[in-house]
Write a structure and sequence with these properties.
Elements (H helix, E strand, L loop, with lengths): L1 E9 L12 E5 L4 H8 L4 E3 L12 H8 L1 E8 L7 H17 L2 E6 L4 H6 L3 H12 L4 H15 L4 E2 L5 H19 L5 E6 L4 H12 L5 E5 L2 H8 L1 H13 L9 H12 L4 E5 L5 H5 L2 H6 L9 H12 L6 H4 L1
Parallel strand pairs: 2-3, 2-4, 4-5, 5-6, 8-9
Antiparallel strand pairs: 1-7, 1-9
Helix pairs in contact: 2-3, 3-6, 9-10, 10-11
Length: 322
Amino acid sequence: MIQRLRLAMLSLPSSSSLSRKKYDVFLSFRDHLYAALKRSGIITFRDDPKIEAGEGIAPEIFKAIQESWCSIIIFSETYAFSHWCLDELAEIVKQKNEKGHKVFPIFYNVDPVDLRKQTGRVQKAFVKHEERYKDYEDKTKRWRIALTEVANVKGWHLNNRHESEFIGDIVNNISSKLCQTYSVVPNGICGMGGIGKTTLAKVVYAQMSPHFEGKSFLADVREVSKKCGLVSLQKQLLSQLLLEEGFNLFNVHEGNVIISHRLCQKKVLVVLDDADNMQHLKCNNEIHERLLISFDGLEETEKKIFLDIACFFIGENKDFVL
């Protein structure tokens, strides 16, 4: 019987804009959307009104924008009247142009044309801003340029839709984009029983584990899943990777949610020993949607080890290797 062992090297590659991001989303407005994003496991920084003090935007806000993969900007009828919102917007556009920061505008009962051309209520807002900051023309100019640029980005329009449905579509869209960015390409060692697959995996695991933030070697996955269930494997995985005990999981879905939330910012190495069922991999599907491994993202030592493993499969049938 051919047995299979999986080495799932899960990480965020240094070449990606996601590699060192603390948050998935920077949210420029405080409403029900934050709760919906959080429930979906999307790590979101919420702009706190307590931070907004004084004339300038707080350093914490700039830092949060820089540490986020994307920004969701909710343009309301009064948005342009807030100099804090416009300062945030200018920084978001700066990160977009310089760092590849993603921007998703939401037009909440406001016409993008008014934002783009600064007409209507937006024009009235800028009359006040330009009077207040008449000695700082560069500031208001940056605001105008930022508004025009983001208003040209395809976004979501509330129109007459029910708000809960509208929010649900936004969360699903953001989640889908994150899943397209985070993926996993597992590596497998397979063959007849007794040829030393587990021994080889342990050697590779020992050599590669120092290059990761967390590590987990799940032994005898097939037997453990039969006797104790997938939840038991999830608990073991979390305990080994996070060096914590006492995870109370009631079902596989809850385990997936916790795995997604706790591991999405970590570079981890996971080995599933004697995994002969795709369900063993699906039990960690949320990791697959969050993390990415690519050859180009590996360190030089990791690349050499990866290629050494690949040499074992030269001349083998593709289906056998996979």
